[in-house]
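U., I forgot to send this yesterday:
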Amino acid sequence: MLRYFIAKPVDFRYLEQYLSSPYGVALRKDWLLGNGQDGDLYRWIFEKGVGQQIVKDLPLVVLFALVFDPLLAVSRAHILGFIELDDHLIMQTIQACWDGIKRYIKRYGMGFKQKLSNPVPE
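Result:
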């Protein structure tokens, strides 16, 4: 998604405007409430992740925001020339989004935290 946005800045700007319009707000509500089809996959992934204790147990709207809002902000910063996104920085950005929602598990009751698997190879 990030690569698409930076490759197609006009499409990105349109999407930003659309999502801020009443139509975009209605679409996002449908995604979150399960009334639309486009958000079903993401909602299912988040719900499955929470159920399996892989993803933090947060409201769905917060999970969406923690994953997608940073991608939009970084895309905007690249398009405006504030940063130059290369493959390494894209992977770091995706990893940071994952870090924001993944759950850590404690082992042996000593407060040791083990990271769950990363979606991005290091």
